[in-house]
C-alpha cells in the first residue's frame, strides 16, 4: 500500500480545507468525513487526511496500488493548489514513505 505525505505553509489552512470540502461535497465517488483538526477524504482506491498544524497544511495519502496513488497525488495537488488563498501560491510536494 503506497503512502505519501506533504506539508505546505499557508496563512489559512482551514480555509483551504473548507473550500475543498465545499467543492467535493456533491461528488458521489468519494466520502468526506470530519476529523480532528481536519478532513478525511475517502476515494474508491485510497484516502487522504488533511490536517492543520498552525499555518501548515498537512496531507497524508494512502492508496490501494501504485497507479491509483500517482493519480490521487496529482488530483490532491492540483485541487489544494487551486484552492489556496487568493494572495498566496501553495506549493505541494509529495514525499513517499
Overview of the structural elements:
The chain is an alpha+beta fold. It has one domain (3-86): TATA-Binding Protein (2-Layer Sandwich). The chain has helices spanning 13-24, 66-82, and strands at residues 3-9, 30-35, 38-43, 46-53, 56-63, 95-96. The chain has a 6-stranded antiparallel beta sheet with strand order 2-3-4-5-1-6, covered by helices on one side. A hairpin with a 2-residue loop joins strand 2 (30-35) and strand 3. The protein is globular and about 35 Å long. The termini are close together. The mean pLDDT is 92.
Please outline what is shown here.
The protein is α+β, with helices and mostly antiparallel strands and 97 residues long. It contains two helices and six strands, in the order βαββββαβ.
Features:
TATA-Binding Protein, six-stranded antiparallel sheet, 97 residues, 6 strands, globular, alpha+beta
Strand content: 35-45%
Which sequence of strands runs across the widest sheet? Answer: 2-3-4-5-1-6
In CATH's first tier, which class applies?
Answer: Alpha Beta
Number of DSSP strand runs: 6
N/C terminus separation: 10 Å
Supply the number of helical segments.
Answer: 2
Main pleated sheet = 6 strands, antiparallel
Mean pLDDT: 92
- The succession of helices and strands, N to C, reads EHEEEEHE
Low-confidence stretches: none
Q: What is the correct CATH architecture?
A: 2-Layer Sandwich
CATH 4th-level superfamily: Alpha-D-phosphohexomutase, C-terminal domain
Helix share, percent:
25-40%
The global form is globular
Query: How many structural domains?
Result: 1
Here the CATH topology equals: TATA-Binding Protein
Sheet/helix structural class: alpha+beta
Q: What value does the Rg take, in angstroms?
A: 12 Å
Amino acid at each position: 500500500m503506497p503512502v505519501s505525505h506533504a506539508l505546505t505553509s499557508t496563512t489559512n489552512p482551514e480555509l483551504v480545507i473548507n473550500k475543498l470540502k465545499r467543492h467535493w461535497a456533491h461528488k458521489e465517488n468519494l466520502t468526506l468525513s470530519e476529523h480532528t483538526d481536519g478532513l478525511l477524504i475517502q476515494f474508491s482506491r485510497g484516502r487522504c487526511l488533511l490536517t492543520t498544524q498552525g499555518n501548515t497544511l498537512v496531507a497524508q495519502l494512502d492508496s490501494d496500488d501504485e497507479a491509483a496513488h500517482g493519480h490521487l497525488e496529482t488530483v490532491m495537488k492540483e485541487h489544494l493548489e487551486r484552492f489556496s488563498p487568493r494572495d498566496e501560491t501553495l506549493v505541494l510536494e509529495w514525499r513517499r514513505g
